[in-house]
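Write out this protein's structure.
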Amino acid sequence: TNEVTNNIVEVMSNLKDAEIGQRGYLLTDDSVFLQPFIGAEQRSNSSFAVLGSIISDNPRQQENLKKLKTLVDEKYLALNNNLILLKNNHHNLLSDSALHRDKIKMDEVRKQVALMLQEGDRLLVERTQVQDRTAAITPIFLLVLSLFSILVITLFFFRLQKETRERISITESNMLLQEANQLIEVSEIRFRTLTETIPHMIWTATPDGKKNFFNKYYLDYTGLSFEELNGGGVKKIIFPDDLKKDMQLWQHSLETGEDFNMEKRIRHHDGTYRWHISHGIAQKDTHGNITGWIGSSTEIEDQKKIEEVLAKGEEQFRTFANSIQNLAWIANGEGWIYWYNQRWFDYTGTTLEDMEGWGWQKVHHPDHIKKVEAFVKEAWKKGETFEVTFLLRRHDGEYRWFLTRALPVKDANGNIERWIGTNTDITEQKNFTEELQRKVHERTQELETKNHELENANAELASFSYVASHDLQEPLRKIQGFSKRIIDKDGEKFSYTTKDYFNRIIAAANRMQNLIESLLSFSRTNTAELVFVKTDLNQTLNEVKVTLHELIKEKNAVIESQQLPTLNAIPIQMHQLFLNLLSNSLKYSKHDVVPLIKISAEKVTINEVAGRVNQDGTFWKIAISDNGIGFEQQYEDKIFELFQRLHGKTEYEGTGIGLAICKKIVQAHNGTITATGQPGIGSTFTFFLSDNNKSLFS
């Protein structure tokens, strides 16, 4: 009740000061009289915020407070309008009727204040009667109550400490995702090592088609480096006549997600072009979204030469086909195979009598043969070049994957006379693709699991914030309130020791409340939705100066600042960052030296923060230096950790969380923060903020 009365009186006092200051300025035109006016409205709003918290359990007083807030806001609005007229030398526009209306509004405020004070007196009488009934309790009981209060606070402190440690471990769950990514990255590196043994050109690309990996065979074949290929070199190694079609088919695959397939000529490092068949498939997550592309190019120069040789005659073709590494065959127009090259017989361990006609089915895998038969019969009917992959049994019983390509040979009337086919062993390529797909799937699953764990951790952290801001602070306020009332009411009856116990209770409760509020600020820094908007840091600095006005005035501090940038940021976090750092400089100033705080800003390149941030582009380097007590440089990392203090709580106030909050804020803006100091000389806190954060409206 006394606190309600004090805050109501504080609101009235601020309003009177503002009105008196304005009148003095009206009479003298001396801006000195406006000093009480400046900041009066902000101080009143702070008192209203405190009142709203105190009377939250009293509906009648809440209604009275709402009416009083409306009247006071209207009064301040009138005072601000009057001040604008006065500053613009429009004294003639400030009529007597306007001043009379101001007086009427002030009378309404006094009436509402009186009403709330009357209600407060009524509550005070009721509570006093209750207190009087307990006045007979002996000092021994009060001492027991004191000891009990100390025990309760101790239990609360240990409970809060335990909860804090648990929640801090939750916030560290963000690091689990990073560790998982590192493990997956190591796995990818090991896996990519396998690609170096594959005699095929292997590449991967981002969802938008930008190549981000070429295996060693690709680099050796083309004679180009990764940078050369990624910088437009891929287009240079494709035969000019094939480039346009290649670009069209690749763009179609990117737009539709369909597989990419094309035959094209690729330049060897010796300058010659050789035929390759290129395949690319999209990698998708569990929701069907494309996460990347995997592709390969296999040389088919021999197959193309076979097709060229066909024009010179089948016998010449047979001679040539027996000299190549691929398996080859010839069938009549209906698909009856009547000839195989020697490589076929060497691989399968069969004879022409075994394989003639449809005998090739004997060396196909039994699980796939029906599907292959259906495909081939349909392909014979269409009479078009076709490709199909299947397993073929080697002479030792091992099945290996082959890519078969069949070409129809037609007469002058377009009738198919025969089919020419080749089979290329693609087992390594097939295994590589499947293994890579498996790795991608495993990575996707791991990321989704970690994201789920992170969502649960954030939900638990939000629950902890609610408990800390409501359930834990409510009994703490009771301890503070009742302890203060006992001291105010019966303090004269207590011994020095008893008073000292109560003062320790109140001090411990205040420290615990500060600790809870600091932990809440740290928690909100972790869980706040990152909405970046254009933020003028000069305006942010001015707002912080207004907040710290009394402390700056008390210490006669001087703050010098260069022009600060406007960048995409989270405004409330920028305010917290500057507030914490400036408060730190003021708190740790030397007692016999006027505090001097200098703020500088300059744009730097990624080279200055290389290895410390995860974003490219330019950065703003902002440094806040002071001439305070400084610190030993060996503690430059410790001061950014939770609950870490370099000084005792009796020397300087604080919870050891402020700089940890600063570190979290800077990291949320894709930046980094460092500190340098010298004992007795001062400290400099330097933070780098990315100039490339995406705005909500960009």
